[in-house]
Amino acid sequence: MSVIEDLVQETEKCINCGFCESVCPTLPSKNYRAIYGARGRVFISKESLKEVKSHGRITLNIEDSIFSCLECYSCYYVCPAGVNPGRVSQMMRNVINRDPSRRKPVAEMIVSLIMKYGNPLGIREKMCSWARGIDFDDSSDTILYTGNMYQLMPYSSFLSKIEAKLNEKTIENMARLIKRNPGILKIIAIPDKIMMERMEKILLDIAFLLKSSGIKFRYLGKDEPYSGAFLYELGYLEEFIEYGKYIRDLFISKNVKNIITIDPHTHEAFKVLYPRYVDNFNFRVFYYLELVNIPLKKLDENLVYHQPCHFTMHEDFDIPSKFIGSIGNVILPERNGKSNFCCGGPAELLYPKLANSISTVRFKQLKEKNGNRIVTACPICFTNLSKDSTVFDIAELIYQNYSKKY
Description:
By secondary structure, the protein is α/β, with parallel strands linked by helices. Helix content is 49%, strand content 6%. It folds into 3 domains: 3-102, Alpha-helical ferredoxin (Fumarate Reductase Iron-sulfur Protein, Chain B, domain 2), CATH 1.10.1060.10; 105-290, no CATH class; 302-405. It has helices at 3-11, 26-29, 38-55, 63-67, 85-97, 105-117, 149-165, 168-180, 183-188, 193-212, 229-233, 237-253, 264-277, 309-312, 319-327, 352-367, 379-385, 394-400, and strands spanning 142-145, 258-261, 284-287, 302-305, 329-331, 373-376, 391-393. The strands form 2 sheets. The protein has a 4-stranded parallel β-sheet with strand order 5-4-6-7. The chain has a 3-stranded parallel β-sheet with strand order 1-2-3.
């Protein structure tokens, strides 16, 4: 089935009931403008498909509506007709991107850098500094694969602050300039130093937890490419498949058999998406907490857990909460599980103001539970929700409470 056929089939199921709008995080943050809600996205997708069928192209201005979708899938789990507006938005991005004149310049810049350098900012060589001094097992066929995600967040945070202060036209012109002259980004991409130290410490904690569990692994260092997840999420399916083949061939050449992932976006890409789209992507993929097996101290603390959408909505994967429960009392916000409320992070690349608005709402929901700490299990969630000192990555929590350290 083609993407167009799949879209037609999905959008035609909509009965226009509006249940999806009751849970869509972007709708209230966009002052309830209908096109920025789940139902609105399905409706304009349906109308756009009619245009494609009759005129061969889209004339409606739908890009901001479609690309601002977080793909959190909250809408899907309340839809009585079984429509997934998040999936509709993801597929519509692919349709939009077929017309070069309609592509988002910032997305084009990121895709170009990934395809050329194996990193969304073109700074792949800076992603492995955290691992200096660690003794890896270079004979192992298992790799610890960071996917560059934790390392990218300090840069993303800094660039988003700049982006939020500029108008859209200036941002687009900058993106076009950087796409033509990628070396510029290496000059202006300055990481948040405090966040960089924190992220590198989290990576060290993860490596320590795996080693303490008796897991032997190596790290590809400067040869480790970014996962490619943004390619899929931005609707560049053909590039995603091409990039997946590159990763497959690289791993085969490095004699990689097993991959340890450390974040939800990368885990989904390697466990679900690449095997679906890339032939012979036959690696065994583990999320690192599946392998961690250490004694933990029990605390008399209430730990408010923000579940990552890519674990809770896209997959049914709940290992992080088991570890949190081994340390303290797991407290979930009102919006949890299949009614989870996204951190806003997926909008950060293209719509930083929207992302901040949504993350502020989510942070308030988490703080209302009056827990001792807020715990995340995703670097994007961690970055977007770190609005005070009570927010921790799950690796930090586990490392701090590994009982044999005391």
